[in-house]
Amino acid sequence: MVMTIFYILVFPGFLFLSAYGLAVEFVDRKLYARFQNRKGPPWFQPFADFVKLISKETIIPAEADRRMFKSLPVFAMTAVLTASLYIPVWSTQSLFPFEGDVIVILYLLTIPTLTFFLGGWHSSSLYSTLGSVRVLTQLFAYEVPLLMAILGPALLAGTWSLSGVSAFYAANPIYALVNIPGFVAAMIAAQGKLERVPFDIPEAETEIVAGAFTEYGGRLLALFRMTIDIEMVVVAALVSAIFIPLFSANPWLGFLFFVIKTLFVVFLLALFRSVMARLRIEQMVRFCWRVLTPLALVQILIDLIVKGFVQL
Amino acid sequence: MGKVVIPIGPQHPALKEPENFVITLDGEKVVAAAVNLGYNHRGIEKACEQRTYLQDIYLIERICGICSHAHSTAFIQAAEEIAEVEIPRRAAFIRTLIGELERIHSHFLWLGVAGHEVGFDTLFMYSWRDRELVLDLVAKLTGNRVNYGINTLGGVRRDISPEEAAEIRKVIGALEERTKYYLGIASEETTLISRFLNVGRLSKEDALRLGATGPVARAADIKRDVRKDDPYAAYGEIPFDVITDTHADVLGRTLVRVKELMECYKIIRYILDNMPEGLISVRFPRRVPEGEAFSRYEAPRGEDVHYVKSNGMDKPERVKVRAPTMANAASVAHMLSGGYLADVPIVIAAIDPCFSCTDRTIRVRDIFRGSDSVLDWPALRDYSIRWYRENGLDFSGIKLFGREIG
């Protein structure tokens, strides 16, 4: 019981994820800055930003739905923290694995996106409403390829449990090579999920100010920002647990591998972000359905064929 | 969602200066767009009438923070035409040189802003980093980064030494390499092209009808450049090409600007090779004889027009400035309608707007009473007295300089 509470609150739960989320945000910002030939922020900048936001006054628009406006950031945070419980950290096993947890993780990761939509909608301001409509439009574009890209490797492993998938690829690392198209598709879809360039359409600063977050400020915005940081960790961990077969039986070494893998994914995400321009929403939807979804389908096909050969 | 009216500005992250665009949206599509100028009037034209010609140069130079040399040269050319002063050839060459260096840093600035508007911040950081090279060079040559103060009536204030000329060649060489790289980005980067191609279209006929100037017109295949059509300073004897493009969209405007940079390097090299010896300025009379003059200058943003009228005193009677953004403002509304909301910032940015240079009036909009009228001075005064009285402040009975103010 005490250990469970420790797992949930300290490691690898709330405290660890918050600290690691801020660290990952720093790595992302520093890499982005270095790619742009800038100096970049000092290591404590994300934490300083967080403290500053926390100390600011919370302003709620008069026309907004007060209860929804205040509770949505908490919902978003809770959802990503819950999702993290099913992600392996120091070994191939997560804390509470069960058959089908891959689907649960993906659904829990959809909740923050929905709260962004609801938060923007309940702010009742023009830019927020436009931003939240874009959040939802974008969700329908990247969610299917993301799910299908993860479905392929799970089919090959023959299990719906993330821990099972990890254990399968840890035992047979060579199979990870056939999952490269899926990895590419998942990385691009993750960029959409995390709302980063070229898919930062819902919060396109030069178009609709801050999109769904326009009316948010102070503590509530800090919670949303923290949610996005933790979401990045969870998505990076999910993608790396499925596609990068680098595990160790030793928990310390395993944890080191976890850090290396997630930072590698973050490195790729930062690289994408710095070499592209933002797409328009209709270009984004077209790209996701015409390129990304077929790519994920090809991945499923490859995995089915490989599985057929293995069983022969 | 039905039709939504969304204001872009006067305060908006996409705009660097206060200006208001009222966009009517149907989903993500722009149905109609209106441009409302009049948020940043500074009264420079009026102030010029109360200062001498020499003082006016420094005021005129501060109309625009980017094309400051364009405005001061246009004004000085008008004054010199009235006074019938011929400047030395060396002065004309130095003016041209600074004008082209200004065009380089202005186009680099634009490239960065365009990148930022479509979320490509890496391009923004890169081009602004490279812009520093030319800004440092200009600071070395003139003493300042943007408001150079090198122009004066009857010539220029600083000479270019051979060492400085060598320095200019070095910087131009480095910038040329960078420009080739940007030309590659503008014509190859997939996401950038998908955001620029067929966005903000302005056909040749529309550009002529709406009076577009500068790169906006040249991107619509209109070969119009004051440097060629009505040569001033040293442009008459410098060989260069007028860059045009047939895309007639934001991509065309980008290509025109980047290719113009290559022409700038050509012009600057020619100037350095053929710089005549001689004086850099001649005496200019304190009192300018009666007369009027109209002067044109190809600023980085398009044709800049100055009109100066003299009544024989040391101060001009009337100064009229038409900044290039004014000429392009009419095209913006046309280019916006029919596009997407996501393209609004880049379409506005594609004319390289300079709103503070453009505004000539202030519109008083009473948002509570819904009135939208232009007030003259006595009406504005009456309004302020009434407003204060309604809010409990009564100035009647207070005398200022022997006159009642209330």
Task: Give a brief description.
The complex is a heterodimer of chains A (312) and B (406). Chain A is mainly α and 312 residues long.
Written overview of the protein:
The complex is a heterodimer of chains A (312) and B (406). Chain A is mainly α and 312 residues long. Chain A has one domain (2-311). Helices cover 72% and strands 0% of the residues of chain A. The longest helix of chain A is centred in the middle third of the chain and has 32 residues, at 126-157. Chain B is α+β, with helices and mostly antiparallel strands and 406 residues long. Chain B has two domains: 44-325, Cytochrome-c3 Hydrogenase, chain B (Orthogonal Bundle), CATH 1.10.645.10; 375-406, no CATH class. Chain B has 15 helices and twelve strands. Chain B has helices at residues 44-49, 53-61, 68-83, 89-117, 121-142, 162-188, 190-196, 204-210, 214-219, 226-229, 250-273, 324-336, 344-350, 355-358, 377-390; strands at residues 3-8, 20-26, 29-36, 151-152, 155-156, 291-299, 302-310, 316-322, 364-366, 371-373, 399-400, 403-404. In chain B, the strands form five sheets. In chain B, strands 1-2-3 form a three-stranded antiparallel beta sheet. Chain B has a three-stranded antiparallel beta sheet with strand order 6-7-8. Chain B has a two-stranded antiparallel sheet with strand order 4-5. The radius of gyration of chain B is 23 Å and the shape is globular. Chain B starts with a strand and ends with a strand. The relative contact order of chain B is 0.17. Classes of the chains: A mainly alpha (312), B alpha+beta (406).
